[in-house]
């Protein structure tokens, strides 16, 4: 197999890479283990200095790194640049707080010392090519671990650029390495005794496979998987803010986000007005070249993702759902310039009147498609919100404190945002329950995932 860097807006191939050989992988792991045995004894101050230098490098190269992301996976350039800046933020957060997070915990009978485990394998996706990596790498490196990255095969330039960031920041050579390998080569890396943990962000099936392999070899694993996040709107909600947020929450990253709002659960009392406003907003969106500042929605990352979302929407429409806007790829492509005719574009779409039993009931829609459901009251809204296999994030819109507390307590999710959009933040733990994942990233919880909590008692 080959690893290709392909522009999803045009289909042009930038560069083709050959995967590492078994001997080259062995060499990388040998270097990683050797460097870890020295790096683990580096001071928190040194690690903090290197992480701050990484943040500086990211901030000095936001446009370059942003363009690489946009070229490889199609997100609008402004969003890509914002992602680079967020990566700098997570580096600074752990540089400033990591030592406190990892300080000895003392009690009357002894204390706990947190120590690094070794090489951590990061299996990362293409949708946030830099952020997903840095939110694992920053705490892992601050804790004294080494990291090897197996990135998605469609973002090799991003993967190599990340390695360069850590090199330029002054981290010892080999402490962070990118492995350009295929999915079929990852199993051998997981099995290697020098690898002490695995962090994967990806699909449910990929998570199951990695978890099984990690369990077989008794490796710690953190999984951040898919989501079908509910966006619940009650009668007391500020509709202006809710609708404005709904557009951003659904269409961020061209709709390819695990924490995007996907199911809009509306109480009948406000459903007509919310729906009409949402349609109006969607009709003003510009689809096109993600490098252009006027573009709101760029292409989906790969042809396979485009095929999947078309299949899901078609199944819903055949079953009786109604497309309030969008849903017609041919019409969209006819409106695009010739140079984009091979791009993976899908129109911003809103589906309503969705019958039970359609893909919308359980599947994650990874594209710019909003699914509208109507309910009579909060009881029905919570039941519907919890009816999927996922449990990543949720957004609830109400001014009533009693309703807010019910949403906080009764929604099955790793995060609940009241009157706001679900998002990750370096200061807070991030992760899901049910089939949305295992473990947490970010915050103090994230840095403690890949350390040995060693009990110490001195007589």
Write up this protein.
The chain is of the alpha/beta class. It has 2 domains: 3-225 and 434-456, Aldehyde Dehydrogenase, Chain A, domain 1; 229-418, Aldehyde Dehydrogenase, Chain A, domain 2 (3-Layer(aba) Sandwich). Helices cover 42% and strands 19% of the residues. The protein has helices at residues 22-39, 44-60, 62-73, 77-101, 131-142, 156-168, 183-191, 204-216, 239-251, 268-282, 303-319, 329-335, 378-385, 401-410, 443-447, and strands at 3-6, 13-17, 105-106, 111-116, 119-123, 146-150, 176-178, 195-201, 220-224, 229-233, 261-267, 322-325, 349-352, 369-375, 393-397, 415-418, 437-438, 451-456. The strands form 4 sheets. Strands 12-13-14-11-10-15-16 form a 7-stranded mixed beta sheet, sandwiched between helices. A 6-stranded mixed beta sheet has the order 7-6-5-8-9-17, with helices on both faces. Strand 10, helix 9 (239-251) and strand 11 (261-267) form a beta-alpha-beta unit. Helix 3 crosses helix 4 (77-101), helix 4 (77-101) packs parallel to helix 5 and helix 9 (239-251) crosses helix 10 (268-282). The radius of gyration is 22 Å and the shape is globular. It starts with a strand and ends with a strand. The mean pLDDT is 97.
The CATH class of the largest domain, by name, is: Alpha Beta
**The CATH topology of the largest domain, please?**
Aldehyde Dehydrogenase, Chain A, domain 1
Distance between the termini: 59 Å
The strand count comes to 18
Average of pLDDT = 97
Main sheet: strand order:
12-13-14-11-10-15-16
Assigned CATH superfamily of the largest domain: Aldehyde Dehydrogenase, Chain A, domain 1
Number of helices: 15
* Overall 3D shape: globular
Class from secondary-structure proportions: alpha/beta
Strand content: 15-25%
| Percentage of residues in helical conformation | 40-55%
Radius of gyration: 22 Å
Structural domain count = 2
Mind summarizing the main beta sheet?
A: 7 strands, mixed
CATH architecture of the largest domain: 3-Layer(aba) Sandwich
Low-confidence sequence ranges = none
